[in-house]
Amino acid sequence: MKTKHFFHTGLNWPYLFLIVLSGVVVYYNSFNVPFILDDVRQIAENPDLRSLGGFLSYDFLGQNRALVDLTFALNYHFGGLDVFGYHLINLSIHIINGILVYYLVFFAAGRLLASDSAEHTSSSLSVIQYTALFAALIFVVHPLQTQAVTYIVQRYTLLAASFYILSVLLYILGRNIQLSGGNNLISLSLLLLCFISGVMAFLSKQSAASLPVAILLIEFILYDRTWSGWKKKLCWIIPFAGLFCLFVLYNVGFFFGQREFGRLLEDVAVLMRTTPDISRWEYLVTQFCVIPKYLFMYLVPVGQNIDHMHPVITSIWNGCALKGLALIIFLLAGACFLFRKQPIFSLAIFWFFIALSVESSIIPIDDPMFEHRMYLPMIGPVLATAWAGGLMLQKYPRVVVGISLSVVIVLGFLSIERNKIWQSQIAIWEDSVAKNPDNYRAHTSLALALEYENQKQKAFSHYYRALELEPEYGFAHLNLGALLLEKGKIAQAEQHLHKAEQELPRHPRVLNNLGALFAIRQQFSEALEYFRKAVELNEYFSEARFNLALSLLKLEQPVKAREEIKRLLELDPEHSGADELLIIIEKYLQG
Questions:
Q1: pLDDT for residue 533 is more than 70
Q2: pTM reported for the whole predicted model
Q3: For the chain, which domains are there?
Protein backbone atom coordinates (compact mmCIF):
# COMPACT_ATOMS: atom_id res chain seq x y z
CA MET A 1 0.00 0.00 0.00
CA LYS A 2 1.40 3.40 -0.94
CA THR A 3 0.88 5.27 2.32
CA LYS A 4 1.41 8.77 0.99
CA HIS A 5 -1.14 8.32 -1.79
CA PHE A 6 -3.58 6.67 0.59
CA PHE A 7 -3.20 9.48 3.13
CA HIS A 8 -4.06 12.12 0.51
CA THR A 9 -7.06 10.01 -0.51
CA GLY A 10 -8.24 10.26 3.09
CA LEU A 11 -8.10 14.04 3.04
CA ASN A 12 -11.72 14.26 1.96
CA TRP A 13 -12.56 17.84 2.98
CA PRO A 14 -16.34 17.57 2.45
CA TYR A 15 -16.37 14.56 4.81
CA LEU A 16 -14.34 16.41 7.43
CA PHE A 17 -16.61 19.45 7.11
CA LEU A 18 -19.64 17.21 7.60
CA ILE A 19 -18.16 15.83 10.82
CA VAL A 20 -17.53 19.35 12.13
CA LEU A 21 -20.98 20.56 11.09
CA SER A 22 -22.69 17.59 12.74
CA GLY A 23 -20.95 18.28 16.04
CA VAL A 24 -21.89 21.97 16.00
CA VAL A 25 -25.54 21.30 15.09
CA VAL A 26 -25.98 18.63 17.75
CA TYR A 27 -24.34 20.61 20.56
CA TYR A 28 -25.36 24.17 19.65
CA ASN A 29 -27.79 24.20 22.61
CA SER A 30 -25.23 23.11 25.21
CA PHE A 31 -23.21 26.31 25.59
CA ASN A 32 -25.27 27.70 28.48
CA VAL A 33 -25.48 24.50 30.54
CA PRO A 34 -24.43 25.49 34.10
CA PHE A 35 -21.81 23.90 36.32
CA ILE A 36 -23.33 20.66 37.61
CA LEU A 37 -22.30 18.15 40.28
CA ASP A 38 -18.49 17.69 40.20
CA ASP A 39 -18.12 20.79 38.01
CA VAL A 40 -18.65 22.87 41.14
CA ARG A 41 -16.04 21.13 43.30
CA GLN A 42 -13.41 20.47 40.67
CA ILE A 43 -13.72 23.68 38.66
CA ALA A 44 -15.83 26.47 40.16
CA GLU A 45 -14.54 26.00 43.73
CA ASN A 46 -11.12 24.53 42.96
CA PRO A 47 -8.42 26.92 44.28
CA ASP A 48 -5.69 25.17 42.28
CA LEU A 49 -7.20 26.47 39.04
CA ARG A 50 -6.98 30.12 40.04
CA SER A 51 -3.33 30.39 39.07
CA LEU A 52 -1.23 28.99 36.22
CA GLY A 53 1.91 28.92 38.36
CA GLY A 54 1.35 25.45 39.77
CA PHE A 55 1.29 23.97 36.28
CA LEU A 56 4.75 25.25 35.40
CA SER A 57 6.66 23.24 38.00
CA TYR A 58 8.40 19.86 37.86
CA ASP A 59 5.65 18.41 40.06
CA PHE A 60 3.25 18.85 37.12
CA LEU A 61 4.08 15.33 35.87
CA GLY A 62 3.24 13.86 39.27
CA GLN A 63 -0.23 15.36 39.47
CA ASN A 64 -3.25 13.25 38.60
CA ARG A 65 -4.98 14.52 35.47
CA ALA A 66 -2.70 17.55 35.46
CA LEU A 67 -2.96 18.23 31.74
CA VAL A 68 -6.73 18.71 31.79
CA ASP A 69 -6.55 20.79 34.95
CA LEU A 70 -4.20 23.08 33.03
CA THR A 71 -6.88 23.59 30.36
CA PHE A 72 -9.43 24.42 33.08
CA ALA A 73 -6.95 26.91 34.57
CA LEU A 74 -6.55 28.51 31.14
CA ASN A 75 -10.34 28.69 30.80
CA TYR A 76 -10.52 30.45 34.16
CA HIS A 77 -7.61 32.75 33.29
CA PHE A 78 -9.25 34.02 30.11
CA GLY A 79 -12.95 33.79 30.95
CA GLY A 80 -13.42 33.33 34.67
CA LEU A 81 -16.43 31.14 35.42
CA ASP A 82 -18.36 31.94 32.23
CA VAL A 83 -19.51 28.47 31.16
CA PHE A 84 -19.51 29.32 27.44
CA GLY A 85 -15.74 29.02 27.13
CA TYR A 86 -15.67 25.70 28.96
CA HIS A 87 -18.34 24.21 26.69
CA LEU A 88 -16.66 25.60 23.58
CA ILE A 89 -13.41 23.82 24.43
CA ASN A 90 -15.24 20.58 25.27
CA LEU A 91 -17.08 20.60 21.96
CA SER A 92 -13.92 21.46 20.03
CA ILE A 93 -12.12 18.47 21.56
CA HIS A 94 -15.11 16.23 20.78
CA ILE A 95 -15.16 17.30 17.13
CA ILE A 96 -11.39 16.76 16.86
CA ASN A 97 -11.94 13.30 18.30
CA GLY A 98 -14.55 12.65 15.63
CA ILE A 99 -12.01 13.54 12.95
CA LEU A 100 -9.41 11.31 14.62
CA VAL A 101 -11.93 8.45 14.65
CA TYR A 102 -12.47 9.02 10.92
CA TYR A 103 -8.76 8.62 10.22
CA LEU A 104 -8.33 5.76 12.67
CA VAL A 105 -11.06 3.76 10.94
CA PHE A 106 -9.89 4.87 7.49
CA PHE A 107 -6.34 3.63 7.97
CA ALA A 108 -7.27 0.51 9.96
CA ALA A 109 -9.85 -0.60 7.39
CA GLY A 110 -7.51 0.35 4.57
CA ARG A 111 -4.72 -1.74 6.01
CA LEU A 112 -6.95 -4.77 6.44
CA LEU A 113 -8.37 -4.54 2.91
CA ALA A 114 -5.08 -3.98 1.13
CA SER A 115 -2.24 -6.34 0.47
CA ASP A 116 1.29 -5.08 0.95
CA SER A 117 1.81 -4.63 -2.77
CA ALA A 118 -1.62 -3.85 -4.16
CA GLU A 119 -3.40 -0.56 -4.65
CA HIS A 120 -6.94 -0.08 -3.44
CA THR A 121 -9.58 -0.52 -6.09
CA SER A 122 -12.10 2.27 -6.42
CA SER A 123 -14.84 0.06 -4.96
CA SER A 124 -12.86 -0.92 -1.89
CA LEU A 125 -11.82 2.70 -1.37
CA SER A 126 -15.45 3.81 -1.41
CA VAL A 127 -16.25 1.17 1.24
CA ILE A 128 -13.37 2.41 3.40
CA GLN A 129 -14.42 6.06 3.08
CA TYR A 130 -18.05 5.22 3.84
CA THR A 131 -17.08 3.14 6.87
CA ALA A 132 -14.80 5.86 8.25
CA LEU A 133 -17.37 8.62 7.72
CA PHE A 134 -20.33 6.70 9.13
CA ALA A 135 -18.30 5.60 12.18
CA ALA A 136 -17.13 9.17 12.84
CA LEU A 137 -20.64 10.60 12.49
CA ILE A 138 -22.16 8.08 14.90
CA PHE A 139 -19.34 8.78 17.35
CA VAL A 140 -19.96 12.55 17.17
CA VAL A 141 -23.77 12.63 17.32
CA HIS A 142 -24.67 9.64 19.51
CA PRO A 143 -26.63 10.77 22.61
CA LEU A 144 -24.64 8.44 24.87
CA GLN A 145 -21.71 10.82 24.32
CA THR A 146 -23.54 13.85 25.71
CA GLN A 147 -22.46 13.24 29.30
CA ALA A 148 -18.80 13.30 28.27
CA VAL A 149 -19.24 16.48 26.21
CA THR A 150 -21.89 18.54 28.01
CA TYR A 151 -20.79 17.68 31.55
CA ILE A 152 -17.85 20.09 31.69
CA VAL A 153 -15.66 18.18 34.12
CA GLN A 154 -15.61 15.20 31.78
CA ARG A 155 -13.04 17.01 29.70
CA TYR A 156 -10.80 14.49 31.47
CA THR A 157 -12.47 11.80 29.38
CA LEU A 158 -12.44 13.87 26.19
CA LEU A 159 -8.78 14.84 26.25
CA ALA A 160 -7.60 11.40 27.35
CA ALA A 161 -9.49 9.95 24.37
CA SER A 162 -7.88 12.52 22.05
CA PHE A 163 -4.34 11.52 22.93
CA TYR A 164 -5.28 7.82 23.12
CA ILE A 165 -6.71 7.78 19.58
CA LEU A 166 -3.91 10.00 18.29
CA SER A 167 -1.32 7.65 19.78
CA VAL A 168 -2.85 4.65 18.00
CA LEU A 169 -3.15 6.62 14.76
CA LEU A 170 0.50 7.71 14.91
CA TYR A 171 1.49 4.10 15.46
CA ILE A 172 -0.45 3.01 12.38
CA LEU A 173 1.11 5.76 10.26
CA GLY A 174 4.59 4.93 11.51
CA ARG A 175 4.19 1.23 10.81
CA ASN A 176 2.69 1.90 7.37
CA ILE A 177 5.72 3.98 6.41
CA GLN A 178 8.02 1.23 7.66
CA LEU A 179 6.28 -1.42 5.58
CA SER A 180 6.11 0.74 2.45
CA GLY A 181 9.88 1.31 2.53
CA GLY A 182 9.54 5.02 3.32
CA ASN A 183 11.85 7.30 5.27
CA ASN A 184 12.89 5.39 8.39
CA LEU A 185 13.55 8.61 10.33
CA ILE A 186 9.96 9.77 9.75
CA SER A 187 8.68 6.38 10.85
CA LEU A 188 10.72 6.45 14.08
CA SER A 189 9.63 10.03 14.74
CA LEU A 190 5.97 9.03 14.42
CA LEU A 191 6.48 6.11 16.82
CA LEU A 192 8.19 8.42 19.31
CA LEU A 193 5.27 10.85 19.04
CA CYS A 194 2.99 7.85 19.60
CA PHE A 195 4.71 7.23 22.95
CA ILE A 196 4.57 10.92 23.92
CA SER A 197 0.88 11.07 23.04
CA GLY A 198 0.31 8.03 25.24
CA VAL A 199 1.94 9.80 28.17
CA MET A 200 -0.27 12.83 27.54
CA ALA A 201 -3.33 10.56 27.49
CA PHE A 202 -2.41 9.17 30.90
CA LEU A 203 -1.79 12.69 32.25
CA SER A 204 -5.35 13.47 31.19
CA LYS A 205 -7.00 10.43 32.80
CA GLN A 206 -5.65 7.21 34.26
CA SER A 207 -8.07 5.06 32.27
CA ALA A 208 -5.62 5.55 29.38
CA ALA A 209 -3.42 2.90 31.03
CA SER A 210 -4.94 0.38 28.61
CA LEU A 211 -3.27 2.11 25.63
CA PRO A 212 -0.26 -0.26 25.34
CA VAL A 213 -2.65 -3.22 25.04
CA ALA A 214 -4.62 -1.39 22.34
CA ILE A 215 -1.44 -0.78 20.35
CA LEU A 216 -0.40 -4.43 20.68
CA LEU A 217 -3.86 -5.34 19.39
CA ILE A 218 -3.36 -3.06 16.38
CA GLU A 219 0.06 -4.58 15.70
CA PHE A 220 -1.32 -8.11 15.88
CA ILE A 221 -4.46 -7.63 13.78
CA LEU A 222 -3.14 -5.14 11.21
CA TYR A 223 0.50 -6.10 10.77
CA ASP A 224 1.95 -9.30 12.17
CA ARG A 225 0.13 -12.42 13.33
CA THR A 226 3.17 -14.72 13.34
CA TRP A 227 4.97 -15.97 16.45
CA SER A 228 8.36 -15.61 14.76
CA GLY A 229 7.64 -11.96 14.06
CA TRP A 230 6.55 -11.27 17.61
CA LYS A 231 9.67 -12.84 19.07
CA LYS A 232 11.72 -10.27 17.17
CA LYS A 233 9.54 -7.44 18.50
CA LEU A 234 10.11 -8.29 22.17
CA CYS A 235 13.36 -6.33 22.17
CA TRP A 236 11.43 -3.05 21.77
CA ILE A 237 8.03 -4.00 23.21
CA ILE A 238 9.44 -4.86 26.66
CA PRO A 239 11.47 -1.61 27.15
CA PHE A 240 8.62 0.65 25.98
CA ALA A 241 6.03 -1.23 28.03
CA GLY A 242 8.32 -1.11 31.06
CA LEU A 243 8.93 2.61 30.63
CA PHE A 244 5.20 3.29 30.35
CA CYS A 245 4.51 1.18 33.47
CA LEU A 246 7.13 3.12 35.41
CA PHE A 247 5.50 6.37 34.40
CA VAL A 248 2.08 5.02 35.43
CA LEU A 249 3.43 4.03 38.87
CA TYR A 250 5.08 7.43 39.24
CA ASN A 251 1.91 9.27 38.35
CA VAL A 252 -0.32 7.29 40.75
CA GLY A 253 2.13 8.06 43.55
CA PHE A 254 3.97 4.77 44.00
CA PHE A 255 7.40 6.37 44.29
CA PHE A 256 6.34 9.02 46.80
CA GLY A 257 7.21 8.09 50.36
CA GLN A 258 8.67 4.89 51.76
CA ARG A 259 7.83 1.65 49.94
CA GLU A 260 9.01 -1.85 50.72
CA PHE A 261 9.97 -3.94 47.70
CA GLY A 262 8.34 -7.00 49.20
CA ARG A 263 5.03 -5.13 49.38
CA LEU A 264 5.15 -4.04 45.72
CA LEU A 265 1.96 -5.79 44.58
CA GLU A 266 0.07 -4.79 47.71
CA ASP A 267 1.10 -1.13 47.36
CA VAL A 268 0.14 -1.04 43.70
CA ALA A 269 -3.18 -2.72 44.50
CA VAL A 270 -3.99 -0.03 47.06
CA LEU A 271 -3.08 2.79 44.70
CA MET A 272 -5.08 1.37 41.78
CA ARG A 273 -8.50 1.76 43.41
CA THR A 274 -10.70 4.72 44.34
CA THR A 275 -12.94 3.20 47.01
CA PRO A 276 -12.51 0.63 49.80
CA ASP A 277 -16.29 0.15 50.02
CA ILE A 278 -16.52 -2.32 47.11
CA SER A 279 -14.37 -5.44 46.82
CA ARG A 280 -12.65 -6.22 43.54
CA TRP A 281 -14.83 -9.28 43.06
CA GLU A 282 -18.05 -7.37 43.73
CA TYR A 283 -17.02 -4.64 41.33
CA LEU A 284 -16.19 -7.17 38.60
CA VAL A 285 -19.48 -9.01 39.05
CA THR A 286 -21.35 -5.70 38.94
CA GLN A 287 -19.65 -4.90 35.63
CA PHE A 288 -21.11 -8.10 34.18
CA CYS A 289 -24.45 -6.29 34.55
CA VAL A 290 -23.21 -2.82 33.59
CA ILE A 291 -21.44 -3.68 30.31
CA PRO A 292 -24.58 -5.13 28.62
CA LYS A 293 -26.45 -1.98 29.67
CA TYR A 294 -23.81 0.16 27.97
CA LEU A 295 -24.20 -1.87 24.78
CA PHE A 296 -28.00 -1.74 24.96
CA MET A 297 -27.90 2.05 25.38
CA TYR A 298 -25.66 2.25 22.34
CA LEU A 299 -28.18 0.29 20.27
CA VAL A 300 -31.28 1.86 21.87
CA PRO A 301 -30.30 5.17 23.49
CA VAL A 302 -33.07 5.44 26.08
CA GLY A 303 -32.99 5.65 29.86
CA GLN A 304 -30.00 8.01 30.04
CA ASN A 305 -29.31 9.29 33.54
CA ILE A 306 -26.72 11.66 34.96
CA ASP A 307 -26.44 9.33 37.96
CA HIS A 308 -27.58 5.73 37.45
CA MET A 309 -26.43 4.77 40.96
CA HIS A 310 -26.22 1.16 39.83
CA PRO A 311 -26.53 -1.30 42.74
CA VAL A 312 -23.49 -3.38 43.67
CA ILE A 313 -23.93 -7.05 42.77
CA THR A 314 -22.30 -9.39 45.27
CA SER A 315 -22.89 -12.82 43.69
CA ILE A 316 -22.02 -14.26 40.31
CA TRP A 317 -25.23 -16.28 40.55
CA ASN A 318 -27.29 -13.12 40.26
CA GLY A 319 -29.41 -13.44 37.10
CA CYS A 320 -28.18 -10.12 35.72
CA ALA A 321 -24.52 -11.07 36.25
CA LEU A 322 -24.90 -14.52 34.66
CA LYS A 323 -26.61 -13.12 31.56
CA GLY A 324 -24.01 -10.39 31.26
CA LEU A 325 -21.14 -12.83 31.60
CA ALA A 326 -22.70 -15.04 28.93
CA LEU A 327 -22.96 -12.05 26.56
CA ILE A 328 -19.34 -11.05 27.19
CA ILE A 329 -18.12 -14.61 26.52
CA PHE A 330 -20.25 -14.75 23.36
CA LEU A 331 -18.77 -11.49 22.04
CA LEU A 332 -15.18 -12.52 22.79
CA ALA A 333 -15.75 -15.93 21.23
CA GLY A 334 -17.26 -14.21 18.20
CA ALA A 335 -14.20 -11.97 17.91
CA CYS A 336 -11.97 -15.04 17.85
CA PHE A 337 -14.21 -16.86 15.36
CA LEU A 338 -14.35 -13.87 12.96
CA PHE A 339 -10.65 -13.15 13.25
CA ARG A 340 -9.56 -14.58 9.89
CA LYS A 341 -12.57 -13.77 7.72
CA GLN A 342 -13.71 -10.47 9.24
CA PRO A 343 -10.83 -9.06 11.33
CA ILE A 344 -12.47 -5.62 11.47
CA PHE A 345 -15.26 -7.04 13.62
CA SER A 346 -12.63 -8.68 15.83
CA LEU A 347 -10.79 -5.36 16.13
CA ALA A 348 -14.05 -3.61 17.07
CA ILE A 349 -14.93 -6.12 19.81
CA PHE A 350 -11.47 -6.26 21.33
CA TRP A 351 -11.13 -2.46 21.21
CA PHE A 352 -14.39 -2.12 23.16
CA PHE A 353 -13.25 -4.38 25.98
CA ILE A 354 -9.69 -3.04 26.10
CA ALA A 355 -10.78 0.62 26.23
CA LEU A 356 -13.33 -0.22 28.94
CA SER A 357 -11.03 -2.49 30.93
CA VAL A 358 -9.62 0.00 33.44
CA GLU A 359 -13.02 1.28 34.58
CA SER A 360 -15.01 -1.93 34.17
CA SER A 361 -12.88 -4.74 35.55
CA ILE A 362 -11.31 -5.32 38.99
CA ILE A 363 -10.33 -1.75 39.90
CA PRO A 364 -13.13 -0.57 42.21
CA ILE A 365 -14.47 2.90 41.46
CA ASP A 366 -16.99 4.74 43.63
CA ASP A 367 -19.76 4.43 41.05
CA PRO A 368 -20.03 1.26 38.96
CA MET A 369 -21.82 2.96 36.05
CA PHE A 370 -21.45 6.32 34.35
CA GLU A 371 -22.26 7.01 30.71
CA HIS A 372 -19.10 8.99 29.99
CA ARG A 373 -17.08 5.78 30.46
CA MET A 374 -18.43 4.62 27.09
CA TYR A 375 -16.84 7.56 25.27
CA LEU A 376 -13.61 5.91 24.10
CA PRO A 377 -14.90 2.29 24.06
CA MET A 378 -17.72 3.40 21.73
CA ILE A 379 -15.23 3.37 18.86
CA GLY A 380 -15.60 -0.41 18.89
CA PRO A 381 -19.40 -0.53 18.38
CA VAL A 382 -19.37 2.32 15.84
CA LEU A 383 -16.68 0.55 13.84
CA ALA A 384 -18.70 -2.68 13.82
CA THR A 385 -21.89 -0.80 12.84
CA ALA A 386 -20.23 1.16 10.07
CA TRP A 387 -18.41 -1.88 8.68
CA ALA A 388 -21.66 -3.88 8.61
CA GLY A 389 -23.08 -1.13 6.42
CA GLY A 390 -19.92 -1.05 4.33
CA LEU A 391 -20.27 -4.75 3.52
CA MET A 392 -23.66 -4.06 1.95
CA LEU A 393 -22.75 -0.75 0.32
CA GLN A 394 -21.77 -2.06 -3.11
CA LYS A 395 -24.84 -4.26 -3.42
CA TYR A 396 -27.44 -1.84 -2.03
CA PRO A 397 -25.81 1.63 -2.19
CA ARG A 398 -28.96 3.76 -2.04
CA VAL A 399 -30.55 1.72 0.74
CA VAL A 400 -27.37 1.71 2.85
CA VAL A 401 -26.73 5.45 2.42
CA GLY A 402 -30.39 6.22 3.17
CA ILE A 403 -30.43 4.11 6.33
CA SER A 404 -27.08 5.54 7.44
CA LEU A 405 -28.29 9.10 6.97
CA SER A 406 -31.50 8.33 8.87
CA VAL A 407 -29.56 6.80 11.76
CA VAL A 408 -27.30 9.85 12.05
CA ILE A 409 -30.27 12.25 11.95
CA VAL A 410 -32.23 10.31 14.60
CA LEU A 411 -29.21 10.04 16.89
CA GLY A 412 -28.47 13.74 16.43
CA PHE A 413 -32.07 14.66 17.28
CA LEU A 414 -31.91 12.53 20.44
CA SER A 415 -28.67 14.27 21.47
CA ILE A 416 -30.26 17.69 21.00
CA GLU A 417 -33.20 16.60 23.14
CA ARG A 418 -30.86 15.19 25.80
CA ASN A 419 -28.93 18.45 25.92
CA LYS A 420 -32.19 20.31 26.59
CA ILE A 421 -32.48 18.40 29.86
CA TRP A 422 -28.97 19.59 30.83
CA GLN A 423 -30.08 23.25 30.53
CA SER A 424 -30.91 23.58 34.23
CA GLN A 425 -29.90 21.74 37.36
CA ILE A 426 -33.54 21.24 38.30
CA ALA A 427 -34.33 19.62 34.95
CA ILE A 428 -31.37 17.22 34.95
CA TRP A 429 -32.01 16.08 38.52
CA GLU A 430 -35.78 15.80 38.07
CA ASP A 431 -35.00 13.56 35.10
CA SER A 432 -32.68 11.48 37.28
CA VAL A 433 -35.20 11.13 40.12
CA ALA A 434 -37.98 10.23 37.69
CA LYS A 435 -35.89 7.39 36.25
CA ASN A 436 -34.61 6.17 39.61
CA PRO A 437 -36.86 7.30 42.50
CA ASP A 438 -34.65 5.49 45.04
CA ASN A 439 -31.52 7.48 44.16
CA TYR A 440 -30.83 9.42 47.36
CA ARG A 441 -27.96 11.34 45.75
CA ALA A 442 -30.26 12.57 42.99
CA HIS A 443 -32.87 13.66 45.56
CA THR A 444 -30.18 15.60 47.45
CA SER A 445 -28.89 17.29 44.29
CA LEU A 446 -32.43 18.14 43.18
CA ALA A 447 -33.15 19.66 46.60
CA LEU A 448 -30.04 21.84 46.34
CA ALA A 449 -31.03 22.96 42.84
CA LEU A 450 -34.50 23.85 44.12
CA GLU A 451 -32.89 25.89 46.90
CA TYR A 452 -30.97 27.94 44.33
CA GLU A 453 -34.28 28.69 42.59
CA ASN A 454 -35.89 29.68 45.91
CA GLN A 455 -38.21 26.66 45.93
CA LYS A 456 -37.23 25.79 49.47
CA GLN A 457 -40.36 23.97 50.55
CA LYS A 458 -39.90 21.48 47.71
CA ALA A 459 -36.24 21.23 48.67
CA PHE A 460 -37.17 20.11 52.20
CA SER A 461 -39.26 17.22 50.86
CA HIS A 462 -36.39 15.91 48.71
CA TYR A 463 -33.84 16.19 51.54
CA TYR A 464 -36.12 14.22 53.85
CA ARG A 465 -36.76 11.67 51.10
CA ALA A 466 -32.99 11.26 50.57
CA LEU A 467 -32.49 10.58 54.28
CA GLU A 468 -35.35 8.09 54.28
CA LEU A 469 -33.50 6.19 51.57
CA GLU A 470 -30.03 6.59 53.14
CA PRO A 471 -30.01 7.87 56.76
CA GLU A 472 -26.20 8.10 56.82
CA TYR A 473 -25.80 10.27 53.71
CA GLY A 474 -23.60 13.14 54.90
CA PHE A 475 -24.34 15.63 52.11
CA ALA A 476 -28.09 15.40 52.70
CA HIS A 477 -27.52 16.13 56.41
CA LEU A 478 -25.18 19.00 55.51
CA ASN A 479 -27.54 20.72 53.08
CA LEU A 480 -30.65 20.10 55.15
CA GLY A 481 -28.89 21.43 58.26
CA ALA A 482 -27.87 24.59 56.40
CA LEU A 483 -31.43 25.14 55.16
CA LEU A 484 -32.88 24.60 58.64
CA LEU A 485 -30.32 27.04 60.02
CA GLU A 486 -31.42 29.62 57.46
CA LYS A 487 -35.04 29.09 58.53
CA GLY A 488 -34.11 29.64 62.18
CA LYS A 489 -34.75 26.05 63.27
CA ILE A 490 -31.58 25.91 65.33
CA ALA A 491 -32.12 22.70 67.29
CA GLN A 492 -33.01 20.65 64.19
CA ALA A 493 -30.16 22.22 62.24
CA GLU A 494 -27.65 21.29 64.95
CA GLN A 495 -28.78 17.66 64.87
CA HIS A 496 -28.23 17.35 61.11
CA LEU A 497 -24.98 19.34 61.07
CA HIS A 498 -23.39 17.19 63.76
CA LYS A 499 -24.48 14.11 61.83
CA ALA A 500 -22.85 15.62 58.73
CA GLU A 501 -19.68 16.19 60.77
CA GLN A 502 -19.59 12.49 61.64
CA GLU A 503 -19.93 11.46 57.99
CA LEU A 504 -17.80 14.28 56.50
CA PRO A 505 -15.35 15.19 59.27
CA ARG A 506 -13.02 17.35 57.15
CA HIS A 507 -15.50 19.01 54.82
CA PRO A 508 -15.09 22.83 54.83
CA ARG A 509 -18.80 23.53 54.36
CA VAL A 510 -19.73 21.33 57.31
CA LEU A 511 -17.26 23.22 59.50
CA ASN A 512 -18.44 26.59 58.23
CA ASN A 513 -22.08 25.79 58.92
CA LEU A 514 -21.28 24.55 62.41
CA GLY A 515 -19.38 27.77 62.97
CA ALA A 516 -22.45 29.72 61.82
CA LEU A 517 -24.56 27.71 64.27
CA PHE A 518 -22.38 28.72 67.22
CA ALA A 519 -22.18 32.32 65.98
CA ILE A 520 -25.98 32.56 66.01
CA ARG A 521 -25.84 31.40 69.65
CA GLN A 522 -23.28 34.14 70.36
CA GLN A 523 -20.65 31.48 71.14
CA PHE A 524 -17.99 33.18 69.06
CA SER A 525 -14.97 31.34 70.51
CA GLU A 526 -16.41 27.99 69.39
CA ALA A 527 -17.50 29.49 66.08
CA LEU A 528 -14.00 30.86 65.51
CA GLU A 529 -12.42 27.41 65.73
CA TYR A 530 -14.78 25.96 63.15
CA PHE A 531 -14.26 28.87 60.74
CA ARG A 532 -10.48 28.63 61.14
CA LYS A 533 -10.50 24.90 60.37
CA ALA A 534 -12.65 25.50 57.28
CA VAL A 535 -10.21 28.12 55.97
CA GLU A 536 -7.23 25.86 56.68
CA LEU A 537 -8.82 23.16 54.53
CA ASN A 538 -9.68 25.59 51.72
CA GLU A 539 -8.08 29.00 51.81
CA TYR A 540 -10.26 30.13 48.88
CA PHE A 541 -13.47 29.46 50.83
CA SER A 542 -14.63 33.09 50.89
CA GLU A 543 -17.70 32.60 53.06
CA ALA A 544 -15.71 30.88 55.82
CA ARG A 545 -12.96 33.55 55.77
CA PHE A 546 -15.54 36.33 55.94
CA ASN A 547 -17.19 34.61 58.91
CA LEU A 548 -13.76 34.16 60.50
CA ALA A 549 -13.04 37.88 60.22
CA LEU A 550 -16.46 38.74 61.63
CA SER A 551 -15.96 36.41 64.59
CA LEU A 552 -12.54 37.89 65.31
CA LEU A 553 -14.12 41.34 65.37
CA LYS A 554 -16.85 40.10 67.75
CA LEU A 555 -14.10 38.75 70.00
CA GLU A 556 -12.43 42.18 69.93
CA GLN A 557 -9.47 41.10 67.83
CA PRO A 558 -9.75 43.79 65.12
CA VAL A 559 -6.12 43.54 63.92
CA LYS A 560 -6.46 39.84 63.13
CA ALA A 561 -9.89 40.51 61.63
CA ARG A 562 -8.36 43.12 59.30
CA GLU A 563 -5.67 40.65 58.23
CA GLU A 564 -8.28 38.05 57.33
CA ILE A 565 -10.50 40.46 55.41
CA LYS A 566 -7.54 41.82 53.44
CA ARG A 567 -6.53 38.26 52.58
CA LEU A 568 -10.12 37.63 51.47
CA LEU A 569 -9.99 40.64 49.15
CA GLU A 570 -6.72 39.36 47.67
CA LEU A 571 -8.26 35.99 46.92
CA ASP A 572 -11.73 37.21 45.98
CA PRO A 573 -11.70 40.94 45.05
CA GLU A 574 -15.39 40.90 44.08
CA HIS A 575 -16.67 39.45 47.35
CA SER A 576 -19.85 41.26 48.36
CA GLY A 577 -19.63 42.65 51.87
CA ALA A 578 -15.85 42.40 52.35
CA ASP A 579 -15.19 46.09 51.60
CA GLU A 580 -17.93 47.18 53.99
CA LEU A 581 -16.59 44.95 56.76
CA LEU A 582 -13.08 46.32 56.22
CA ILE A 583 -14.41 49.88 56.65
CA ILE A 584 -16.14 48.85 59.89
CA ILE A 585 -12.91 47.28 61.17
CA GLU A 586 -10.86 50.38 60.30
CA LYS A 587 -13.34 52.61 62.15
CA TYR A 588 -13.18 50.25 65.13
CA LEU A 589 -9.38 50.50 65.17
CA GLN A 590 -9.53 54.30 64.96
CA GLY A 591 -11.50 54.40 68.12
A1: yes
A2: 0.89
A3: 3-421 (no CATH), 424-505 (1.25.40.10), 524-591 (1.25.40.10)
